[in-house]
Amino acid sequence: MSLREWRRLFRRTRSTLPGDYIEDPAELVDGNRLRLLCDGRETYPAMLEAIASARATVHLETYMLKDDRTGWRFAEALGERARAGVQVRVIFDSAGSIGMGERFLQHLRNNGVQLLEFHPMAPWRRRWAWTCRDHRKLLVVDGRIAFCGGINISDDFADPAEGGGGWHDLDASIEGPAARELDRLFRTVWYRETRRWFTVAADPGLRPGASRVQVAANQQLLLRRRIRRALLHALRAAETGITIATAYFIPDRGIRRALYDAARRDVRVSILVPEVSDVEAVNLASRRLFESHLRHGLRLFAWPKRVLHAKAAAVDRRWASIGSYNFTHRSLAHNLEVNMHVLDPEFAGRLDDVILRDAAASREIVLDRWLARPALEKVLERFCYLFRYWF
Q1: Which neighbouring-strand residues pair with 36?
Q2: Which of 99, 71, 94 is closest to 158 using CA atoms?
Q3: Which residues contact 64 (CB under 8 A, 6 or more apart)?
Q4: Considering all CA atoms of the chain, what is the largest pairwise distance in Å, rounded to the nearest integer?
Q5: What whole-number distance in Å separates Cα of residue 270 and Cα of residue 265?
Q6: Whole-angstrom Cα distance, residue 256 to residue 259?
Q7: What SS3 state is found at 38?
């Protein structure tokens, strides 16, 4: 048996050490319980149940808050808690929530919900900005339970059986100390934009699970590469398998190199990408790199059903990442993003299973057929790729 094979066997049989996948183990928070949630069908009922249980605070931060059936369900739930004396605060991105009606906003205000429109899409208004968007999707209740992932508040993500768009996405609920870390992120944005301070709920001392979590957030300027750095560290540590589900896949050179190096080490690299995207120009730009990915040993699977909007990854069925971060320049350089990086074989294994199950239900992209695609598609891909730094 070769040295590499002995090393793999040793790593498979020992307990997971934080240093394997996490650059700074001191950033891990112990004692959390996580549950993986698929699509709005599972996520929205869990969120609404958590909101209904609130006794002190409800903090919602989202890129899209839509004035539709799903949005009104949340508006009613938030308003009911605010009327009961709970401090309810909502941050929504102006660009992502464009088209929201004044009646919807007034309903929230009249019920006591405190609102913050992040960087209004109007040059004459205070806090106007175009480039930086709040792309996070967070809900924190009483600093006790939180939700983090890629799901916005919109009919697009709702169950098709209820008239929704059925976009495919992933979220996670988390109970334990990491929920308070997410609450602190919300408070930071709230204070920076409003100059109004509030105190994060006291630590109840509950440690309901065994998951270790690193809350990684992109901030403007100094911390804008934090999530990317954490992803790179985990990819470089991979020994057996990498699975990724991503809505927009235009990885920078460093991420590409880490994936290609992993495939060269005989690590299975499987990436689920959309067949049809809500932003087709980004989809075309991402396909410009598919030939390179395939030649370097990556396996690509195109999700054929509705829109794929997930932002999740698993490494070696031990480390998992779930949140709002896309493999695009905008997520790296401009947006506010947040991901949870989880050291827990049970959670990472479940996420790995879900992505591989979806891959099995998808169309695998193989090199010979990919090279034979129409010339017009190749031209469009090259053209859209020129604008990759805008996406």
Answers
A1: 172
A2: 71
A3: 92, 93, 96, 97, 152, 153, 154, 156
A4: 70
A5: 14
A6: 5
A7: strand
Residues in the chain, overall count: 391
Query: Where in the chain are the domains?
Result: 3-390
Place of tokens 């992040």: 118
| Residue type, position 374, single letter | P
- CATH homologous superfamily of 3-390 equals Endonuclease Chain A (3.30.870.10)
What pLDDT was estimated at residue 125? Answer: 59
How much is the pTM? 0.92
Instruction: Name the residue type at position 10.
Output: F
The tokens of 105 are what? 């906003």
C-alpha to C-alpha distance for 151 and 313, rounded to whole angstroms: 16
The continuous run of DSSP H or E covering 269 comes out as strand 268-274
Angle at 64 between CA 62 and CA 69, to 5 degrees: 115
41-82: per-residue pLDDT in tens?
999 999 999 999 999 999 999 999 999 999 999 999 999 999
